[in-house]
């Protein structure tokens, strides 16, 4: 729906019967200030290689980051890896160094094409306009920089690596045997 790549996902798998919450999912996410080492280590544990990992983080091309996760890059001083002009824009979006965590104050991950799944994220990162510390760090790190550059130039390559990475993720931690259930309707426990 947002213009990203199409790929097949296997059906007929077992899903958990346990109720999960956002907090459950958050256990598996890296901290908003995570660096490239933590990111690549996390991806390697899932058998995802560097270009696939860089492509998966490209999903930041859509969505937004709440101010509570941005302010450490803006206050008391602006992170030196952040584009200065962009930092001023972000300060308008997030004017307080202590935002209310329940407030809906945010900045879009990609202000140019916010509702298109495309390679513009990488173009932003190359201009040091990544919202999270990891975003810009991917361009500064010699292990990931070549992939950021290539994905910025070649949307097809980005899509190819993204599909490969997502295909690996869909195979991670699959329930087997008596664990879980095959749902009649994927949104609800039988």
Automatic annotation (TrEMBL):
Reaction catalysed by this enzyme = 2 a phenolic donor + H2O2 = 2 a phenolic radical donor + 2 H2O
Q: Where is the Plant heme peroxidase family profile domain?
A: 1-190
- Which SUPFAM superfamilies does the UniProt record give? Heme-dependent peroxidases (SSF48113)
Q: What cofactor does its activity depend on?
A: heme b; Ca(2+)
Q: Which Pfam families match?
A: peroxidase (PF00141)
GO molecular function terms here?
heme binding; lactoperoxidase activity; metal ion binding
Give UniProt keywords alphabetically.
Answer: Calcium, Disulfide bond, Heme, Iron, Metal-binding, Oxidoreductase, Peroxidase, Signal
Using the record for this protein, list the coiled-coil segments as residue ranges, or answer none.
none
**Translocase among the record's keywords?**
no
| Free-text remark on how the cofactor is bound | Binds 1 heme b (iron(II)-protoporphyrin IX) group per subunit. Binds 2 calcium ions per subunit.
Q: Single Gene Ontology BP term? A: response to oxidative stress
Which EC numbers does the record give?
Answer: 1.11.1.7
Give, as one word, the top-level EC class: oxidoreductase
**Please, which domain of life does this record's source organism belong to?**
Eukaryota
Task: State whether keyword Transmembrane helix applies.
Answer: no
What is the recorded name of this protein?
Answer: peroxidase
What is the species of this protein? Ceratopteris richardii (Triangle waterfern)
